[in-house]
Structures are given as structure tokens and as C-alpha cells.
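Listing S7. Sequence submitted for prediction.
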Amino acid sequence: MVPASDRPLSRRGFLLGTGLAAGALVSGCGSGPGTGGGAGITTFSAVLEGSGADESLDPGTSHLFIDEARLKALYDGLFEVDNTMRPVPRLASSGEPNADGTRWRIVLRDARWHDGTKVTSADVLYTLSRVLGPPGPKPFIAAATLDLVDLAQSREVDERTAEIVLKRPSFEFLTALSAYGTRVIRDGTTDFSRPVGTGPFRFTSFRPGKELVATAYDGYWGGAPKIQRLRVLSAEADARQAALRSGQADFADNLTPAAAKTLRGVDGVSVQSAPHSGIYYFAMKTDRPPFDNVDVRRALMRMVDREELVKVALQGQGEVANDVFGQGFEYYAGDLPAHTYDPDEAKALLRKAGVPDLSFELFTAPAAAGFVEAATLFAEQARRSGVTVRVRVGSGDTYYSEALKSGQLTMGQSGPLPIPNHFASRLLTGSPQNRTNWSDPEFDALYGRAVATASEPERAALYHRLHEILHDRGGFVFWGNAFWTSAASSTFHGIPAGVPNSLDWARFDKVTR
């Protein structure tokens, strides 16, 4: 169990324990390194959903939303995805393949680390070698996404150009380079307790489950931030709303529907919502009973009343999903028929599977808004199909780490990802975030064919086939697409409004007064 001092802040703990002055304005500041010269914002405080001891600043292993917000302040990726989930250049100025997609030339910007040294192609190759090397206590998130890289053949062409050789063709390699876990670290780095990055802010201090403090980096290639001191704090849902209303925070992310409704009536607060952004799911462990039986998986897809879950657990603030990931983004298979709530069909499939009296455990936690409510409601829905679901509630602080390895049926909330990255990081055999323990040779082979296909229409057709397989017999039930709602003090401009996991989300270097 995580000690109370390491948990995300509760409403009382946040309001009484921070002592921060949010959004103070300063003029005439010094212009030395890290001070953000000229008029600026003394302190800007952002509060996000925390996860206690699971929080980290290791770009290779971190996977939480709050980790991503902190890492994009400190580091850069070679590429990141825009709001449509397409890769755009960041630390790289360009990336070009050869004719058959087996060699990519990556050209770097003229950028510097926070200690003033140049970013070089050696840093790029070291980052790849670490991700693809022996795993540590936590898996490298991009290991499966980047496993096609042939490190032995890849090389430094010059100080700012790397040639990355692939074991097999891929015309989605820039999308792979935009995945979680691919932010560039300096050659030789093994310790992330005091990280040195290339991002718009320099590290000052970090307490997992509490806060990151960072200061403006004047030498940032994208221009020095106006915010002098950035704080990214962990807080529970009620505390995020309360901190913004009280003026103790300037930005609050991932608000509950009730909090969003309340804040829309508050003077001086601006609320923004992005559709298709909080993707709720059940995850069946397909390598163990009862979900190693394909007909049991098909039955579960039909014992979920998605409309009721969205109405109750999401308080109507979302849209019904259909077990297909990525609504609104490239390669989404929106033409697949909807799985409807059908207890009789579920019973028939369970009889076919030989388990008419099915019983299993659903492991959940208050890790995101609506999880426990959805779990409880689903147990009632399943009872109408003659199924007993035992709901076990764990700790929100460690839930995602525990749910990755344990349980029969678990839950989750995903932000948007490029669909090829979703397949690679969560569904290929052995992928590090494979929450359903899915392993399907046909699926793996089709994915390999898809990324090796130069023709975009042909590649899209292969991705559609992958969706069809998952829609029929996969382990995910994507039941709701929630709005992702954030709010900020209306005295600021340039507040990030992107969907989660995109370049613009939780990015504070362009905020002005």
C-alpha cells in the first residue's frame, strides 16, 4: 500500500498543503539561463490526475498522462503527433525513407541540452539502443513499436544526421518514432533522478505523487517560455476543481463531468472539451480462463450495455463506442457493425463455450472518473446473462501497474493514439502494454504486412482487417468515448487545447498573459 504522503493530493491535502501562488506576473526579470528573460509569468501551476508511486520521469518507461505532461516539459521527441494523430517534426527537422522503406535518414534541428551541449545523432542512436536493450524493473514502452530497428546497421552519418536501418520495411516509421517512450535522452544517460533534457523547461525537483518543479530554458530551440517556474502537480479529481476555483492552480486537466459543469459557471475560468479523447475499456486476459475461450470473449461483448454505462458512469458526457479503437482518427474502422446489448445471445455463446454458469473477477480502482461505478453497473448487466461478476476494488495509486499483469478482467482509460501505435504497443505478441495478453500469429503477420506497404490505400485495407479480427475475437471492449475536459484561468492565452497524447495537449511553453 502506498503511504499517504505519496498518494495524489486530496482536496483538503491540496488546499492546505501546497502554499503556492498561482499565475503571479513578473516584469523585468533577468535574462540569464533558465530565467526566461523579459516580462513573464512567475509561477504557473497545472494539476493533473496523479498515480502516486507509479509516477516517473524516465522517458523510456513512463506511461501515465501526468508523466507525459511532465516529460514534454523536459524532453522532446524526434516526432510527435498532432490532433489528427499524424506525426509532425519536433527535435528532428525531417525524416525520409529510401525507396523500399528499410532505411530512414533523420536530420536533427540545431538544438541543445539544458547544460548547453549540442544534441547529436549519437543521442538518437543511444535512445534507440536503450529502448531495445535489456528491460529493467519496468518495461520500455516503445520496445515492441521499435523492434524493427536494426541497431547494428544504423549509424551516425554526421553530427546532426542519423541513418536508421530497419530489419523489415516500414512506411509508418515516423509514427513509431512519435510513440510513448521515444523521447530523446542524452548519450550514456542511466539516471533520471535529475534529468537533463532538451525541452522548454529545466528540471528543478520532483516528488512522485506530488509535483514536478521546472524553470524556463532560455536556450530552447522553439523559443523561451514566458512561464518562469512551472509546477505540474498530482491531485485527485475534487482537488483539481477546487484548486482552480480557489486560484491555487492555473490549469486543471481531465475534469469529471460534474466538475466541468460547475466550472462552466465560474467567472474567470475557461473550460474546453475534446471529443473521442477519454477511451474507456474492459480488458479480458486472453491467455487465461475464462477468456482464453473465444466464445466467452464474444459473449462478454454482448453482455455490455454500452449506452447505460455512458449514461450512468460517464454521466452522459461521452459517446457509445463499439470495441474499435481510434474513433475520429486515421485508419478507424467506423463501418463495422455495432455490438448490441443482447443477454440471450450472450447466454447462447456461453452454452457453446461450455460455461453456462460463468463466474469471474473484475479488478477495478478509482484510477479515473467512473471506473468503480462502471464496474458495479456492469456486474448488474452481466447478471442478466446469468453471469456472476465479483468486483474487486484496488488502489488507484498502483492500479495500472497491477492490472497489466493480474486479474481476469480489468479496466482502463486510454487517450488517443495513432492506430498503428495502438496495435504495436498493446496488441502485438509480447508488446509491453499488452493489457489483454493478446497473442495472435495472423494479427502479427498482418500488422507486419501493413507497415511494409507503401500504398496508403492498401495499408489502410490491411489495418481494417486487423480491426475486424479484434472486433470479432479480441480482448478489448471499448465501451465509451468520453469528452476530455480541461479548464484554466481565463487570464492566460495559449492554454493547450489538444486531445491527450497529442503535441498540443498539456504543453505550457506557449502560454502568455
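Caption to Listing S7: primary sequence and predicted C-alpha cells for the chain studied. The chain has a mean pLDDT of 90. The longest helix spans residues 456-473.
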